From TrEMBL:
Gene assigned in the entry: rsmI
SUPFAM superfamilies per UniProt: Tetrapyrrole methylase
The protein's name in its UniProt record: Ribosomal RNA small subunit methyltransferase I
Protein family: Belongs to the methyltransferase superfamily. RsmI family.
Entry's EC annotation: 2.1.1.198
HAMAP family, alphabetized: 16SrRNA_methyltr_I
One of the record's GO molecular function terms: rRNA (cytosine-2'-O-)-methyltransferase activity
Length: 282
């Protein structure tokens, strides 16, 4: 009978956030796959966990992942832990979970701390709808594609950033997203935890003058739907009604539907568009 893969969340800064269940599972499994064994041994020693440990990280996730799946199929129970937080969120645990599903291995999650949710809930910004972006891509083309998507993202955005890149990233966000509210969360759950609610341009100025320390989570206000609607309407109003109609007719719309859509775009009644077009015929 195949074993179970456990995704075990570990503290993101405060050891008191370790759950009883997480400790029990880590003691009971046959093997722990850790992102950084040198870092994780401190956690295991603190909770007197003596389970054997192996490394599983970004640079061996495919080769090591296959070996771990083989062990699971042989009946071993394995727990995955990341350096901090919940495995599978912005780390190689995601790939191992996919491999397990393909192999028919059961996956179970032992919930606990996650920096993205911790920051979101204390940000003072909207929490009902949010988009998690992790770190911006290093590849320039991919980063540009993500930023283009974020320009019109209406949900609250949650991102990670390292302190030495924070100012550069904030400047980039300021250029692309403009004046939006942002909460910069640092040192989450630790003694010097801070949550700085401000605007993106003001955050740039502040961190240019004050060197950031500790890993950062950025929680950014989504784009206002009303603002987007007004901008779109302003673009339409730069056109004449005839040009607006032609825009839709050129796409293959019939005249009736083009008139209806033109009226909707401009906040007018369909009858008003019709009367205008009839008048200019005279």
């Amino acid at each position: 009978m195949a074993g179970i893969l456990y995704l075990v969340a570990t503290p993101i800064g405060n050891l008191e956030d370790m759950t009883f269940r997480a400790v029990r599972v880590l003691k009971e499994v046959d093997l722990i796959a850790a992102e950084d064994t040198r870092n994780s041994i401190k956690l295991l020693n603190h909770f007197e966990i003596q389970t054997p440990m192996t490394s599983y990280h970004e640079f061996n996730k495919y080769e090591k992942g296959r070996k771990l799946v083989e062990k699971l199929l042989d009946g071993m129970d394995i727990a995955v832990i990341t350096d901090a937080g919940t495995p599978g969120i912005s780390d190689p645990g995601e790939e191992l979970v996919r491999m397990c599903y393909e192999a028919g291995v059961r996956v179970s999650s032992v919930p606990g701390p996650a920096a993205c949710v911790t920051a979101l809930t204390m940000s003072g910004l909207g929490t009902r709808r949010f988009a998690f972006e992790a770190f911006l891509p290093a590849d320039k083309k991919e980063r540009e594609a993500v930023l283009t998507e974020l320009e019109t993202e209406t949900r609250t955005i949650v991102m990670y950033e390292a302190p030495h890149r924070l100012v550069k990233t904030l400047k980039l966000l300021s250029e692309r997203l403009g004046v939006r509210r942002i909460t910069v969360c640092r040192e989450l759950t630790k003694k010097h935890e801070t949550a700085f609610l401000t605007t993106i341009p003001e955050a740039v100025a502040y961190y240019e003058a004050n060197d950031p320390k500790g890993e950062c989570v950025l929680v950014i206000e989504g784009r206002s739907r009303e603002e987007m609607r007004q901008e779109e309407q302003a673009r339409w109003e730069e056109m004449s009604i005839e040009e607006h109609m032609e825009h839709y007719l050129a796409q293959g719309m019939n005249r009736k539907d083009a008139m209806k859509q033109t009226a909707k775009d401009r906040g007018m009644q369909k009858r008003e568009v019709y009367n205008y077009l009839e008048k200019i015929k005279e």
